[in-house]
Specification:
The chain has seven helices and seven strands. The protein is of the alpha+beta class. It has one domain: Dihydrodipicolinate Reductase, domain 2.
Length: about 190
């Protein structure tokens, strides 16, 4: 596509919707401003219960479930968004690992319906979970740095919290208080 666009002297754009939404821009701004610190971990979960299950058109379903035309299933449908977000924040990884599964074996699909992709950077890891097997739609990511963690869950905003580290100085009481604090915070958070 890139070669053809260049030869025809036209602009080419791939429309990854997650690049256009406000939480992604807020995350990018926070990272560039140094609020998060160097990104060390990116976890992305995108997907839903499956194209057939959510009622996509027959024409779109034929394309999605065709390994030649689409190149894969959930890995291509949703894995691309996490890869794009990771490239936007960290650049190209040194190594990429992936595993795919056909969990809906009764459907006889020719493509995967569940995938996990790991992008390995010298100073970070990105884990991308793309699936057509979740009981509901998932559209969330979490980026953690040395100073803060930012995430997008079911809300339409980017949330940032300072990182709290339990210092293990040999005093169990201090560590337990930190764990209790983190547990209360996690329970109150609707997107964890």
């Amino acid at each position: 596509m890139e070669r053809l666009a260049r030869e025809a002297n036209i602009k080419l754009m791939v429309n990854y919707w997650n690049e256009w939404v406000a939480p992604s821009h807020d995350l990018f701004r926070r990272v560039r401003a140094g609020e998060v610190g160097p990104i060390q971990k990116i976890i992305v979960q995108y997907g839903h219960s499956g194209p057939k299950e959510i009622g996509v058109s027959q024409e779109f379903a034929k394309w999605l479930y065709d390994p030649v035309r689409n190149g894969g299933g959930a890995i291509m449908d949703f894995g691309c968004y996490g890869a794009e977000l990771s490239l936007w924040l960290k650049g190209r990884p040194e190594r990429v690992y992936a595993t795919t599964h056909k969990l809906k074996i009764d459907q006889g699909n020719k493509v995967d319906d569940d995938a996990t992709i790991v992008l390995d950077y010298p100073d970070a890891t990105a884990v991308i979970e793309a699936s057509w097997d979740w009981p509901y739609g998932k559209n969330r990511w979490r980026c953690s740095g040395q100073k803060a963690a930012c995430w997008r869950g079911t809300t339409r905003s980017c949330t940032a919290r300072p990182v709290r580290v339990a210092q293990m100085s040999g005093r169990m009481g201090k560590a337990l208080r930190s764990i209790r604090f983190l547990s209360r915070w996690a329970i109150r958070s609707p997107i964890l």
